[in-house]
Structure formats: C-alpha cells, structure tokens
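Recap quiz, item 2
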Amino acid sequence: MNIADELLKGSRLALSRAITAVENEYDDAVNIMQELYPRTGNAHVIGITGPPGAGKSTLTDKLAKEYRRQGKTVGIIAIDPTSPFSGGAILGDRIRMNELTLDQGVFIRSMGTRGSLGGLSRKTSEAIKILDAFGFDVVLVETVGVGQSEVDIVKTADTTLVVLVPGLGDDIQAIKAGILEIGDVFAINKADHEGVDRLHTELEMMLDLNQTKIAWRPPIQRVIANRGEGISELAEAIEKQIAQSKESGQFIKRRTDRTRTELLSMLDEQVGRFVRKKLSVYGKFDEVVASVEKREKNPYAVVDDIMANILRQ
Amino acid sequence: MEKRVRILVAKPGLDGHDRGAKVVARALRDAGFEVIYTGLRQTPEQIAEAALQEDVNVIALSLLSGAHNHLFPRIVELIREKGMTDVLIIGGGVIPDADIPALKTAGISEVFTPGTSTTTIIDYINANVK
Amino acid sequence: MANESLKLKVAEYTAKVDKASAKFPERKNLEYNRLYTPLDLEGQDYERDLGLPGSYPFTRGVQPTMYRGRFWTMRMYAGFSTAEESNKRYRYLLESGSTGLSCAFDLPTQIGYDSDDIISEGEVGKVGVAIDSLADMEILFDQIDLGKVSTSMTINAPASVLLAMYIAVAEKNGIGPEKLNGTIQNDILKEYAARGTYIFPPKPSMRLITNIFEYCSKNVPNWNTISISGYHIREAGSTAAQEIAFTIADGIAYCEAAIKAGLNVDDFAGRLSFFWNAHNNVLEEVAKFRASRRVWAKVMKERFGATNPKSWMLRVHTQTAGSMLTAQQPENNVVRVALQTAAAVMGGTQSLHTNSKDEALALPTEDSVRVALRTQQIVAYESGLADVVDPLAGSYYVEAMTNQIEAEAWKYIQKIDDIGGAVIAIEQGYIQKEIQDSAYKWQKEVENDQRVIVGVNKFQIEEKPIEGLLRVDASVGELQKKKLADLRAKRDNAAVSAALAKLEAACNDESINLMPVILEAVKTYATLGEICGVMRKVFGEYQAHATL
C-alpha cells in the first residue's frame, strides 16, 4: 500500500505503519514524510513532563478525555525508557489509558527512547508530524520523566505542561530547578495529599523569582487526576497559554525556531553521512586513526586535510 | 537504526493472575524486544485495537481462567479484520493439550503451557516473527 | 565458655567443609547456612520469644492443645459451573469427611458482573460457581445445614453482597445470623497487589470492609470478617518473608481503617483471620508460620494496644501452593502436596485446603480431589506429625530461620510504614514491584538450573497428553443467562428499583453502614451485577498501577 496516501485517506493502520517506518528508518520513511509535511502544522502539540510517580499517564488520559468532550480528536505519544543493556523496553503507559483504546477519535502510540537522552525518543518529532498530518486536533506527548533531562520537549511542543506532586521530599529542589524554565503551565497532581499547600507556595515563589518568562507567568493548577478533578480548569489554562502565545508572537517564534533546529540537524546528518561515505578517498581511515593515536599526526590538521580533500573533488 | 521487534503482551478475560505475563514481559525486554503491556481485563476488541495502534509484530496472550477457546480465536479474527495479516499471535496459560489443535487452526501460531521457559518463547519469536 | 569452644570448633568445621563443598557448586547458593548450632540462637529467651502454645507471643501455636484437641479443619476449595453442580460437589465433600466448605466463585461473580454481561462471555462457571442472585445462592446451599457447617467464601470486592446472600439464605431456612460460622476473604489490598479481582478504588473498598467489621461484630458474631491473604502474594512470586510482611502490613492497614471508623480494636480483632501459602521448602514454611504469629501478636499488643488475648492471635487458613504444581508428570504433584501439607501442619494451621494433582492443567476431577483430601487425613491420622504441639521448636535451624524471617518481615513493615502504609505502598506500586522482582528471580533461577523443579528442568520424560481432565460445559453461560432472564421477569421489579435507589443514596452518605442496605437489596432478588453496578456508579473503578 502507499502508506502516505492511505494515511491521508484516514487509514489508522497506515498511520501506525508510517510511525513504524520512521522509527525504524525504513527506506520509504523519507518519502512518507515528504508527502505528509504539507499537511502538518495544524495540531496543538502539548508536552507533558514531570518526575516519575507524578501521575503523567493518568493526567494524559484525563486530559485526552477532556478534549474529547470538547469534540477534539487526540493523538497521544507515550515515551518510556529503553534499557541501555538489552535495547529492549517495557512500554506500560497505555495501561492508564485503556478506556481510550476503542475511541476512534484517539490514537495512542508508545515509543521507547532507543538511546536518546532528552526525555523523548529520537523520532518523536516525526511521529508528532504524522499524527498531525492524519488530522488530530491535539497531540499529547508524555515524556519519560527522569528529572532534569526533560529538555527536548520544549523544542517540540507548543505548550509544555509540567506535572508535580507533593511528597517528593528533598528531590523537589533539584527537580524544580530543572523544570522551572521549561513549564508553560504547571499542574500539581494529587492535590488531596499532604504538603500540597507548601509545594504550591514554593512553586509560586520560584516562578516569581524566575525572570525568563516575562511575557507569560505560568499558571499553577491543582488537580486530582485519578478522580478527574481540576482537569477542565487545566485545559482552560492551556487554552489561555496558547492564545497568549499566539498573540505575543511567541507561538510562531517557537515554531520557527523548531523548524530552524530541525533543518540544521537534518543538514548535519546529511553532511555527516556524506563525509563518511567520502572518507575512503583519504586512504585507509584505520591507519589514520592509528597514527593519530600514536601522536604521529595531529587530529586537528587531519580533519582540515580531510575536509579540503573532500571539497576539492 | 535497526528494526526493533514490538510485542503486545495482553491479558484477555477476567483473571487477575499476571505473574506469567509479567515475567514473560520482563524476559522479552531483557532479550531486546519492545514490549507493550496493557494490563488486566482486556476485551478482544481492546487488544486488537492496541495491537494496531502499536503496530506490533507479535501478540502474546496470557489467560488462566479457561476462557481461551472463546477469546483467543476472537482476537485472531479481529486482528485479521484490521488488515494485520502478518502479526504472529501466540498464547500461554493453563490450556489443556486437547484444546491446542483447535486454537492453532484458529490462527494461534503456538501455545505455551505451564513450565515453559522464557528462552523457549524468545527463541520461538525470533524464529517466526515476520 | 562453652560457647567459646564451640565457636572454635564451628570455625574449624566451616574451613574444612568449605573446601570439600567447592566440588558441588550447584548446592552452594542456597539461601540458608549449611549447619546451625546453639550459636545461632544466642540471645534467645524461651519464655519471651516462644512461650507456651496458646499464650503470647503464640510462636508455638494459638491453641494450648493444638491437634491434641482436634485436628485442623479440612476445608476443600470447590465450586464450578452452576449452583446446582457445585451443590452436588459440596455434598459429596461433606459426605467424604470434609469438615468445612470453601466456595470458589467464577470471575464475573468475583468482579461483580452478571452472567449475561457482555464482559462475562466465556468466563461463566469456569473457575468457580456463577452466582447472579439470591436464587443461585439458595440452590448452592440446598440441603446443607448452615447452622452446622462452616463456610469459607473466596470473595473480595463484592464480599458484602455474597455475605448478605448467605445471611438471607440462612434466614429463609430459619437460621439466625448469630448461628452462622464461616469466613469471607474480603481482602481487597492483596487484590490490588497480587490477585487482580478488584472493582472499586481503595477508599470506598476500605469503607465496605469496615462496614462489614462493624455489622458482623453486632449481628454475625462468629463470622470471620476477613481473611488477610498472603497466599496470592506468594503465588504471584514473593518470598516467604515477603508473604507474611506484606500481608501483615495489609492487616495493619485494615486495623487502622477500622479504628479510624470508630471501632474498638478488641471488638473486631478477634475475627480477623489470615491465609498462608504452604510452599515447597518444608522447614522454611514452618518457620514462616511461627514467625508470622509472633509478628502479629506484637503488632496487636504493642502497636494497637489490644488487650484481649484473642486479638493477639494469628489464626490461619492454609492452602498448598498451586503455583508449585507442575503440568509435567502431574502425579508427582501428589508428593509435593503431601510435603506442603506436612509443612502447614507442623506450622500449626487452623484449616487447610490441599490442591489436587491436576490443577496445573484444569479444575480438579472428583477423584483427584479425593486424593488431596486423603493426603490431609493420612498426615493427620498416620504420620504422627499432628501428635505433638509445634514439633520443630528447639531445632536450631527452625528457630534461627524463624528469627530471620521475622527480622526480614519487620524490615519490610518498617519500610511500608515509611512510605505511608500499605494502601499508599500499593498505589505507588512498591509492593507489586518487590513481588515481581522475586518472581523474575525465581524464573531465572529455574531457567539457569540453579533451582531444580523435578520433571520441568530435570528428570523430564516424554509424556502423552493427559486424559480425563474436568471440562466445564460450555453451555453454563447460556443456562445462567436463561435463569437470569426468568428471574428478571418473575421478581418484583419495583421493589428491586426501590432497593437499588436506596443503596445509591447510602453509598453517597459515608455515615451509613452499607451492609443492611445491601441485605435488603439482595432479598428483593436484585442481582449481583445490579448491586455492584450501583456501587460502580458512585465509587468509580480502580485503575491498576503499571509496575514492571
């Protein structure tokens, strides 16, 4: 089948296969993305991040249901860590979203990080584009949630939602330091637990001190995700953030930055691949490595030399 | 990036005995597979739809309640209806030998009964996955 | 001084034997030491740590005479297909010398669905009997004198509904609730942690449980209102110490909930009972039983300040380990069950179910159930194991192991206290993770041949498919559906609606005890699915924690 055509006609199987093609870097992946790209740019991409145990999956589930109530369709990407030892992964976030499985206005895809470190998988942004092209109104991306490394999501999402919970003890300082700057909206989950007031106050104070978000002071919404409390208010806060972001020009600036970054990294990859292919013209590369290791050659000079050689061709 | 085999480990039916499913899920992860675990009490419809969304290569069903003759063939049927013709579907649990031929005819490629080592399952998947 | 000389000799011995045993590496990684001596029991105080049977801390047993008084209750877990079929099996068991009944319910019943619910497809009557309404319950106990028999019901999330049905059946036969004897499992925490047949979230579930405690303490005084179960935790793969630690932590959570609901500890604690697994390692199991009694006695006396000695006693039902039965060479399971029975008896259990040899393959046939029951009778009458109270007391090994398991259990209980109690530890997936780690470790050991399971990874033979297994008639589902349709047509539906509306209002008001309201609904022949449906609507459903 022509995956892109079928996908654009509404085939969920084609949608699923497209993500696989991209994730596994199949030969047709680039073609698929080329066909889909013109159809992207319409979905509101929301990243959901926060420490382990904060209830990200449950919140994702409830938020998706809220958007469904509003009549919007929702694509979900849930990311779990890949074991660095075996390369395998257990992707268990779906378990919290089982009630959404049969809803044809929802599509959930689990992804392993497969060696990527920033809280997303290497192919998350492509997977988002595929869901976007399929026509989902909202794309929710649930990150791995391992403390401070959750930086990639900001570059990928229109809205970054940071989920915190009371009772994380001393870790909270470190976590907060890492996520303060990335959050557009904060949710304090398990708001019926002890310590919620303290966490709320601390967070307010830190956001007040934080100067990087002058145009937008991130709101803090208390929720009890497993009971669905505070979810529609949270969706409202996200709505306001996106409206404000569009008004201030932040929205388009972020997207432009993202496109720039993506173009540059695609270029880097292409150039890298090109250079590697051409390395053979510079003689036996292993011998070069050996002589650099023996300090017979200087690596800086070698690189200059290689580049000059390749460019001269 | 090389292809990773994706496996849905699913528990159809109502029984809550997930020791086997979870041990197998962990063993599959340690063998380098991406394992999607959906938890207890999944209907055949939910399992088939999850398999489609996750584009898995293998579906591993675990059931200890005795409802396999009813539920396993139904899942195969739904998977094929969705056009996923190349998915390998295997089953495990307390399943009497006498039931196995009919399950295989229905499209369950292999049935693993109590005492099967996880290595046997992993080897089977590696040899038969498309 | 004597110890100094012994220490020297033990050191010499160890050095010598270590060298010799290097030749047997596969026997090296066992969990316990090779040899135990008085050195391992230093600091033990007989009266403080062991005492006499029937007195604190009950290490040696909860009754003074134990089996020199009467044997444990031989209680065979049974139930399948329809109420009619199961009633036949119960009467057969009672005629065969079984001294208590133990009801197994099918999965739809355990999860509060009627047989005609779409989700029940294929499951009706499979792992137990299908009970949809009081009408089925009347058939289930037909011609059985509920005033004489003691009945255990493995029912948890909908325990209050099944108990109400039992009370209603008895009442119809002219037997008052004060005359009823038996147990409901009613242990929701281990359902979340290990067994999986939960319905409602923890908070309303704990309310249902404390409502039962309160109702029974006033109306059904001889009923064991909960069977706090380690059995399924062990089946899910835990170690012996984890089994008792997690279960006692659950027990602490129930006590706290009941006390918070305004009950006096001594009013309900005497009706709490426990449920252990009898696993393969005979002596470790005996030590586990002894350790568990000591831990619980201390918890009740010191932590909860219970003053009635009955509140300190850990009374326990036991079942042999189903997960240790093999599908390979199933006749070997008879031997396993015999050893497990020996462990439970030497451990001092109050009642026992023995599994049948064919249970790794299917539900047991009548013949194999008889052998399982005979196993208990042989141990009771022929083996001599039941002739003396706590026969292994004073064994250096068993006493040291008892101490070790107790210490490990306390460590877990402390850890769970630090997390905030068993309910939160389960919600966070801590307990599940510990169990799964142990299960995975066990599996790896079997696969690496570090642990031998006869017939599975050693001493295998070519086997023919086993014949003569019990098969549940596939038409049970249709039969139940028809019975339900008849019932819905015949009963007073206005009365049903009124009772269900009253139940819904009561569910919304936490100050109301739900037991009398459920009893009233049951008597109108409202179905289990209808009653649980109302509660689902008000309470919501539990979402499992994904821990792997």
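The interface with chain B takes residues 12-13, 16-17, 19-20, 23-26, 82-83, 85-92, 94-95, 98, 101-102, 107-110, 112, 114, 122 of chain A (CB under 8 Å).
The longest helix of chain A spans residues 250-278.
End of item.
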